[in-house]
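Q: Could you fold this chain for me?
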Amino acid sequence: MYTIKKEFHFSASHQLKQMPDWHPCARLHGHNYVVVIELQSETLDQYGFVRDYLELKAFKEYIDERLDHRHLNEVLGDECTTAERLACHLFDWARARWPEVSAVAVSETPKTWAEYRP
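A: Sure. Below is the predicted structure, expressed as structure tokens.
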């Protein structure tokens, strides 16, 4: 199995309204997110790629236009905008375009990661 990954960055705010009032994530706050998309294939295309990295420009454009410097609760229409749910959202968006997408991981801080891999 061949695997490729590409990293993207954006900044956004969110609020986890489902959390108790005393929890810091219940308050409006923001993160400098890191997103890693992973693609896998048992074969390579005619150029020797799983998928040309240039084709992932659409993923960057989606992140830049829809998520960067936005309030994720408004963008995603959800009050539970956890890193886990964001990873799933981005996976679904990407998998609809590229069948080789195997996982999306989202980091909110340098020490935390959430990954969606069906």
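A (continued): The chain has a mean pLDDT of 96.
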